[in-house]
Amino acid sequence: MRTDTPLQPTEEKLIETDICVIGGGSGGLSVAAGAVQMGTSVVLFERGRMGGDCLNYGCVPSKALLAAGHAAAAARKADRFGISLPEPDVDFARVHAHVRDVIAGIEPHDSVERFEKLGVKVIQAAATFTDTRTVTGGGYRVRARRFVIATGSSAAIPPVEGLKDTPYLTNETIFDLTERPAHLLIIGGGPIGCELAEAHRNLGSEVTLVEAAGLLGNEDPEAAALIRAHLEKIGVTVLDGALVRQASGSGGGVTLSVETGGAIQRIEGSHLLVAAGRRANTDGLGLEAAGIETSRTGIEVDAGLKTSNRRVYAIGDVAGGLQFTHVAGYHASVVIRSALFRLPAKADLSAVPRVTYTDPELAQVGLLEEEARAKHGEKLRVLRWTYQENDRARAERATEGFIKVIALKNGRVLGATIVGRNAGELIQSWGLAIGQKIKIGAIASSIVAYPTLAEIGKRAAGSFFTETLFSPRMRKIVRFLAAFG
Predict the structure, then answer these.
(1) Domain 354-469 carries which CATH code?
(2) CATH number listed for the domain at residues 13-50+111-155+279-341
(3) Tens of pLDDT, residues 85-138
């Protein structure tokens, strides 16, 4: 008679290392690559796809999809230049292939193979803290001198009645579509919602965007209004100040019950995208066992990105602050200085730019006008210049937009908003000005190539001095000096 011997649990292999990184997205990979190349031993846990949200579900695929949409939009607008083209024939399966090809081209840089070649021990599994300096996962028990949590964020699902039983997409699934949505409904009017609304509308979908507050509510209201006008111009139906009360549907379509101004209307579509904010990925990390405190927005960190467990850092989205890939990369540099070189390092986010990649783009760095007024009162100068007044913008028929610069009366730059063609590229010099405390006069006196869109910033900076240069007092001085020959 045969008897089965009970299987014994597999013993976990112990690894002792200098740095253990949890999360293989932008921030985690930057820490791992930097640390291992500086001579430390590094273990990296990643339970999903290397490259994280940005490469696989966020920045890269969304910009690839937007580029396809912009190409279609350019064909429709070619008549402005005397070129007549037919309505573009959008092959959505090929658009999907384009998006996947862009991701595939970047993947090797973030791959397991590359990081193992660098010397990183990559464990493709989730990691869980079992005490203040140990994590387990994938058959390993890892003890480290320092830990870096870089698990990112995922789509927050609002508590809408019926939504959990309704088929919906998030940024993690919408790029899997190989057929064009006939009518895409979007919950959320932030950057993700606006970008994907524009992309799908340009590619031929009907789009309805529903936002509970105001569209792009964290941005300059005047700039946000221009983006809204653009979306409506290309045919997106925008409902802001609208609350989604109920969702229903099946594979054949979805329906939203939306309250606007006290009235309920039913909106029917073929697909539903939820883009109503983000939540930090902390589930399953065993943070209590490690003595790591959290808040509603994510893991609590100090100015140096250390958690309540001084051996553990948290960076990027999971740290509950600004949720941008470039912030995660910047956080990584702060951690490298602190953990490897034991140098005092603090994260300074005063000059972090952000961009919404619609066309026109909306870019912001530093303080918004209302934030600056709340902090500095009336000690401000608000400098403006429009794309309409720029020769390059006129040549390219891209005159929609403006720059707004907020400065103190002593010339210190506090913030800048640009809405228009290539705003994401133009904002960088203003981030440099804020971060390095470069005053407005240096920008006004810089030499900018003609004709370029960059002249918009120089012209705005120059307007800081207009009142003084062309004042009655200055005219008197010039006339007085002229009397001497």
Answers:
(1) 3.30.390.30
(2) 3.50.50.60
(3) 999 999 999 999 999 999 999 999 999 999 999 999 999 999 999 999 999 999
**What pLDDT is attached to residue 379?**
86
Q: Letter for the amino acid at 219?
A: E
Binding-site entries for FAD: 63, 151-153, 317
Fold agreement (13-50+111-155+279-341, 354-469) = no
Give the residue among 461, 471, 466, 442 at the shortest CA–CA distance from 385.
461
pLDDT for the residue 10: 62
Binding site residues, as ranges? 63, 151-153, 188-195, 211, 277, 317
Give the pair of three-digit tokens for residue 463.
């307007």
Cα–Cα distance list, 162 to 166, 248, 270 (Å): 6, 6, 17
Q: Are 423 and 371 in contact (CB under 8 A)?
A: no
- Binding-site residues for NAD(+): 188-195, 211, 277
Domain boundaries, the chain: 13-50+111-155+279-341, 163-276, 354-469
Domain 163-276, CATH: 3.50.50.60
DSSP sequence for 196-210: HHHHHHHTT-EEEEE
Please give the structure tokens belonging to residue 226: 């221009």
Q: Residue 465: name the closest of 480, 445, 437 by CA.
A: 445
